[in-house]
Design goal:
The chain is about 40% helix and about 10% strand. The chain is an alpha/beta fold. It has a 6-stranded parallel β-sheet, with helices on both faces. Helix 1 crosses helix 4. The two termini are about 15 Å apart.
């Protein structure tokens, strides 16, 4: 009997375009410090790298050790976590297709679970995903493989039969370390100087519908 597989996703930059809400939070902090708004173009490549990376780009003088500013940023963001965030085009149709084939899907993100859950709830993802693991849900976070392995354990899926999609090199590193097929998406927040083709992924896709060509989904559709 074939091992049961599942489809796991990163959240920001893969399923959800959350950059506008994160930039808003950064600009609230800039305004409090008498600075003009930061623009989206230089901010966007940092969104999938975490809050410290975003603040390092948008806030002069910020250092990763500045826990007070980090907490301020996360607090502002939590107040409007889904004001402008939306699913990327084609994601809703892909999720419908995955579910129609009887496959389970889940989310593994480095975003704190307390922020990921309300975002997913607002976008209608929370009742549908079989598992949600945040960056603070476990002792380790991506690129460590533990979150992916634990996600598979919780939904009784075999990592070797499963897929993980992400828009950051850490996603692919985590997938490989977990023994999963790592698929990079090129609609996310990556640095153009280091495109998905350079991450060592088994595959790079440019639209959610392209995932339907994967053997895991084709076999279910047959």
């Amino acid at each position: 009997m074939a091992e049961r597989g599942a489809v796991l996703f990163d959240l920001d930059g893969t399923l959800v375009d959350s950059a506008a809400d994160l930039l808003h939070a950064a600009n609230v902090l800039r305004a409090r410090r008498g600075l003009e708004d930061f623009s989206m173009a230089p901010f966007r490549p940092f969104v999938s790298r975490g809050a410290r990376a975003m603040l390092g780009a948008a806030l002069p003088g910020f250092t990763p050790e500045d826990e007070s500013t980090l907490a301020e940023f996360l607090g502002v963001y939590a107040e409007s976590v889904a004001a402008h965030s939306r699913l990327f085009p084609g994601v809703a149709t892909l999720l419908d297709a995955i579910e129609a084939q009887g496959l389970r899907w889940g989310i593994v993100t480095n975003k704190a679970e307390g922020l990921a859950r309300p975002l997913c709830e607002a976008l209608g993802l929370l009742p549908r995903c079989a598992v949600l693991i945040g960056g603070d849900s476990l002792p380790q976070r991506k690129p460590h493989p533990l979150p992916l392995i634990e996600a598979c354990r919780r939904i009784e899926a075999a990592p070797a039969a499963s897929l993980y999609l992400g828009d950051d090199p850490r996603d692919i590193e985590a997938a490989h370390a977990a023994g999963m097929r790592g698929i990079a998406v090129d609609w996310g927040y990556y640095d153009p100087a280091h495109p998905p083709a350079a991450w060592g992924a088994q595959r790079v896709i440019s639209a959610p519908a392209h995932l339907l060509d994967e053997p895991l989904l084709r076999e279910r559709a047959a």
